[in-house]
Amino acid sequence: MSAYRFAAAAIWSIAIAVAGSKVAEVGMDIVSRRAISKRPGHFRCTEHSFLARSGNDIAYRVAGSIRPKHVYVLCHGLGTSSNYLLLLADHLSRAEDTLVVIYDRAGYRRSRVGTSFPYSIVESVNDLEDLLSNIEELHQSVVLVGHSFGGYIAHRFVEAHPEKVDSLWLIEPTHPQEATLSDQRREGVLAVTESIRMNTLLARAGLGILNDNRPTAKGLSGNPYSHSVESEIPTGRTWRAMKREWDTISALLLDGTIGVRNGEVPTRVITSDDTESSLAVQQELFRQFLEDSQPLDILVGLNHHSVLLSRRGVLAVASRIRGEHDGP
């Protein structure tokens, strides 16, 4: 075989491999966007979307009572979507007087980025405000629940609009001064930046299947929605949305001058013992979200992912949230 034919054959093989990866990625995108309510025995919900003032097209799912006493609005973290919260939404929606709303920030799952501006925290706060305005049932008691970066967005929302929320639950919330705790944390921010950059490039080249999803997968014990969570991790959509947000978040973390303050809304913080014990001062950051007399709620034997992805973690979280609002 001539050098020319050999090179042509090599290029053709690479093209086929990339095309195959593209097909695999599209297939996983379709799975991640599929209405979970169509699967027998799974979280039964209705799918909706609206155009936010930002220009973003925001998708959300609603399940539960048509005459709710409590409405739970769940905010997902960085690099995940509402699929990550399906198990918690499932458990919370089982109460007769409860409505649960889970939504996707711009770029994740079915939500689309429509703004031409770079990402900002204000964009997410405004999109969340527009979500609440688009749901008629939200004139009832609203309980806002946020995980990780979604927790920080929920906190910022409550700071800006305390009149719209009755209580706030933060699960392993991101604190804007986390990177100031140690040199190791600052180096971690830089490592995440490089990881997101490389994985975004892989996804763009159609090689998203090579992205490592094992850290998240380890927390999926007993979760019937594990496929929905895992299938969207390697997709280009997820990595592009993550990079868009992380460019802003990393600058916020490395700056370290912005703090948090107690608001007018009752707030609880749930954390895993794995995160809480990673650094002694981590507790102090979490407590900044709370009133002085309010303790942290520490769940033993869990980590940042398993607290919401494992059945044991979700049962513990859901029982605390429901117990707080259902009364004796």
TrEMBL record:
The keyword Hydrolase applies. Keywords: Hydrolase. Residues 73-196 form the AB hydrolase-1 domain. InterPro entries: AB_hydrolase_1 (IPR000073), AB_hydrolase_fold (IPR029058), AB_hydrolase_sf (IPR050266). GO terms for cellular component: membrane. GO terms for biological process: acylglycerol catabolic process. It holds the Pfam family Abhydrolase_1. GO terms for molecular function: monoacylglycerol lipase activity. It comes from the Bacteria. This is Alpha/beta hydrolase.
